[in-house]
């Protein structure tokens, strides 16, 4: 892989055995490596026949069967749904967060099942900020009806609190595909609100059919992000109180993917058959959702941009991990400048180990790059390309990582683990396992190994400094 070297303390292979997956990326919690869209508790056996034989109007779900479903609460009262897409981010409808003063009393509860009781699995966090789509207009609230909520903190992921997957950029679910929406909305039009989470399965409609039906309404609806789902004769639908919640589709033998955000509908579960022959107040519409495929770049840009400043760029603890961007399926955005720093106790050194690396390649890494700096901003190395750097051991208690991207090509970013080590725990036979990028560094490296085995590591720093002069 291309490497632009500055003051290279040393790069080596096989210093410490890292077991794949044993470290915790920043985007996940410690413990089990929970994956998006993977249910621990299924509602029932999933097959095409069962999806078509659900109770008309939907049914109550088992606890944990929709672990990405969250409840938006205003002063502890549910008013909209949302979907967890990471431990820190929720997607909801923009019309749910129109109130300018909402942030002061808005909370999000994950792991909720029965709104009438406080359950052991529940977790509630305040919202740090929210971002409505810039094309959303309250005067035409059906179009671009989507918002991102950044939590003030992070949810602890587990069996009843898991994110749904975002769709891949080219992923499509064809018309007729049966998907699921859920929420605590009304059970019938103008009916009662349930305490327990409900779900209903709906087929995706052809875009042309969706547009045709929406033009039969008294105020014809047009938009760039509209997606319809439902049955022409009605009977099954989302309803008031479900706004902002998920429309998720399951990949065959795969994960549950968020494809739509519950937006609106004319009435609830009304038929739209023969709409033109009905009075306006009797006409119906399918359920209308915001199509995530139409706003996916905006979602990724905002989530990834905000991830540059996670915890003010400070990596926590003496051992952990960093994944950038947060989701391995997302590409980093153009024109980014992201900086992370790690400070460990005085006298310790820092080992960096990369398991994944995909940054725009260039001989001198002049376009997109990840630079590693040690104490006093000494450049250890500048990296780009598709091959992970070999493990990097920095002989100081401070490391700074700087990622930059230009306005052209991008990549999938990188994943790495970091670990603080004392000089006494460093291996003594490292000289036999070195891999260096430039031949003239070999003498420096061998000299370092001798110093290391003699327990005089600090002399290495002095030796390097004298060579710089």
TrEMBL record:
Residues 311-421 form the CUB domain. GO terms for cellular component: extracellular region. Residues 1-23 form the signal peptide. One of its GO terms (molecular function) is serine-type endopeptidase activity. SUPFAM superfamilies: Spermadhesin, CUB domain (SSF49854), Trypsin-like serine proteases (SSF50494). This is Ovochymase 2. Residues 55-304 form the Peptidase S1 domain. The keyword Protease applies. It comes from Sphenodon punctatus (Tuatara). The lineage of its organism: Eukaryota, Metazoa, Chordata, Craniata, Vertebrata. It holds the Pfam family CUB.
């Amino acid at each position: 892989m291309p490497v632009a070297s500055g003051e290279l303390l040393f790069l080596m292979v096989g210093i410490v055995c890292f077991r794949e997956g044993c470290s915790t990326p920043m985007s996940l919690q410690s413990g089990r490596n929970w994956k998006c869209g993977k249910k621990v508790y299924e509602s029932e056996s999933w097959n095409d026949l069962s999806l078509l034989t659900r109770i008309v109007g939907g049914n109550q779900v088992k606890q944990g069967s929709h672990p990405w479903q969250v409840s938006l609460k205003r002063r502890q009262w549910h008013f909209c749904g949302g979907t967890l897409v990471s431990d820190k981010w929720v997607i909801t409808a923009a019309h749910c967060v129109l109130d300018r003063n909402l942030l002061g009393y808005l909370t999000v509860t994950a792991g909720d099942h029965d709104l009438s009781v406080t359950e052991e699995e529940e977790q509630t966090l305040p919202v740090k900020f929210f971002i409505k789509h810039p094309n959303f207009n309250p005067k035409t609230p059906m179009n671009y009806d989507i918002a991102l909520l950044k939590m003030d903190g992070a949810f602890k992921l587990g069996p009843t609190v898991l994110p749904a997957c975002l769709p891949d950029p080219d992923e499509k679910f064809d018309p007729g595909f049966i998907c699921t929406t859920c929420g605590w909305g009304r059970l019938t039009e103008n009916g009662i609100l349930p305490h327990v989470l409900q779900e209903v399965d709906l087929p995706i409609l052809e875009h042309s059919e969706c547009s045709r039906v929406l033009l039969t309404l008294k105020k014809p609806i047009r938009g760039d992000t509209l997606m319809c789902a439902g049955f022409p004769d009605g009977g099954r639908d989302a309803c008031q109180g479900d706004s902002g919640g998920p429309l998720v589709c399951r990949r065959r033998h795969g994960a549950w993917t968020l494809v739509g955000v519950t937006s609106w509908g004319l009435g609830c579960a009304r038929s739209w058959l023969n709409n033109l022959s009905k009075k306006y107040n009797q006409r119906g519409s399918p359920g209308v959702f915001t199509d995530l495929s139409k706003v996916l770049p905006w979602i990724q840009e905002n989530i990834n941009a905000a991830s540059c400043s996670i915890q003010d760029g400070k990596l926590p603890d003496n051992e952990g991990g960093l994944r950038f961007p947060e989701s391995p399926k997302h590409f980093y955005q153009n024109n980014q400048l992201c900086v992370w720093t790690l400070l460990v106790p005085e006298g310790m050194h820092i080992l960096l180990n990369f398991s994944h690396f995909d940054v725009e390649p260039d001989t001198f890494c002049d376009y997109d790059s990840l630079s590693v700096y040690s104490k006093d901003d000494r450049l250890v190395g500048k990296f780009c390309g598709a091959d992970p750097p070999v493990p990097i051991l920095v002989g100081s208690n401070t490391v700074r990582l700087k990622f930059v991207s230009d306005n052209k090509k991008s990549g999938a970013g990188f994943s790495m683990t970091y670990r603080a080590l004392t000089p006494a725990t460093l291996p003594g036979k490292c000289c036999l396992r070195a891999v260096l990028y430039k031949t003239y560094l070999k003498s420096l490296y061998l000299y370092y190994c001798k110093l290391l085995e003699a327990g005089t590591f600090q002399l290495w720093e002095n030796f390097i400094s004298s060579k710089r002069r």
